[in-house]
Amino acid sequence: MNHHQPTFPVIGPSSEDTMAAFVAQATVDPDVAGLILSGSQAHEGMQTSHSDFDVHVVLREGASSPIRHLDGFRSAHLDLVVMTLNDFRRRGLGGDPMSWLRYAYVHAQVLFDGLDGVIGSILDTKRTLSPAEADAAAARYLDAYVNQTYRSLKNHRDGRPEPAHLDAAESIPFALEVVFALHQRVRPYNKFLQWELDRHPLNDGWSTGQLLSAIHAIHAILADGTPTAQRALFAHIEQAARTAGHDHVLDAWGEDLVLLRG
User: Fold this and answer.
1) Are both 149 and 252 inside the same structural domain?
2) d(CA 216, CA 210)
3) What backbone phi and psi angles, to 5 degrees, belong to 246?
4) Dist CA 38 CA 176 (whole Å)
5) pLDDT at 232
6) How much is the pTM?
7) What is the mean pLDDT of the chain?
8) Span 135-143, mean pLDDT?
9) Residue 125's pLDDT band (boundaries 50, 70, 90)?
10) Does pLDDT of 5 surpass 70?
11) Which residues 6+ apart lie within 8 Å of 258 measured at CB?
12) Using N-to-C axis directions, what is the helix angle for 208-224 and 227-243, rounded to 10°?
């Protein structure tokens, strides 16, 4: 056992009790600069009887608090991510090894800000993509999406349905990244995709009919990888990408686009 392991958090009779005890202890620790609630508990209506509390703890630089040893703590009641203030500034952004964590901050709630608003201000910069971030992400994922879809349709053309279906399924994460980046939004985790679309629709440039058609195509692609569904989704994404000024990414594929358009 790690001899640095603190004697808390104390696991109470319920997750709410455990959470309340941890917050009470952490907020009186002078090394704690901020507490942030993430996960299902920060998404209204997504909590279940199995939901724990996901808390990100921000420590001041040079902190000696025993809480620093709790990074990665997991229990049925409470999961903790612990980082310094400087790490928090970078966490989830481009270049951070944990950039995949970005969506965890999109709807996160500040439970404690010991720096007079600094924690909340940093958190707000993570909630949406900056114009530069969105432009770069859309271009990067658009090229990956086209590549994966092209591979799938080539396999279909050449009589290889099994790899074609796998390639089609692998194109979907790239497609979702593109769609959200085109709206300067962070792609949600799959668990929260429908929640996000229901509460924060992609209205800018996507009609309700277009969005429903795209989602229908995604479901069909995941089900059997049908070329018809892939081309339907590509048509939506091509139109949106060109409207956003990403013609150069698409045009670089030259005559290969004929296969994608069918």
Assistant:
1) yes
2) 10
3) -100, 30
4) 22
5) 92
6) 0.89
7) 92
8) 97
9) very high
10) no
11) none
12) 140
Beta bridge partners of 55: 37, 80
Please state the domain count of the chain.
2
The terminus-to-terminus CA distance of the chain in angstroms comes to 61
74 and 52 within one domain? yes
Domain shared by 136 and 231, yes or no: yes
> Strand pairing partners for 110?
36
3-state secondary structure of 80: strand
Burial state string for 134-144 with b = 16 or more CB within 10 A and e = fewer than 16: bbebbbebbbb
- Compute the distance between CA of residue 175 and CA of residue 182 in angstroms, rounded to an integer: 11
- Asked if the model's pLDDT at residue 252 lies above 60, the reply is yes
Bridge partners of 204, per DSSP, are none
Residue 2 lies in a domain: no
- The residue segments making up the domain with residue 235 are 131-261
Rounded Cα gap, residues 172 and 213, in angstroms: 14
Rounded-to-integer distance, Cα 170 and Cα 211, Å? 20
* Tens digits of residue pLDDT in 23-38: 999 999 999 999 999 9
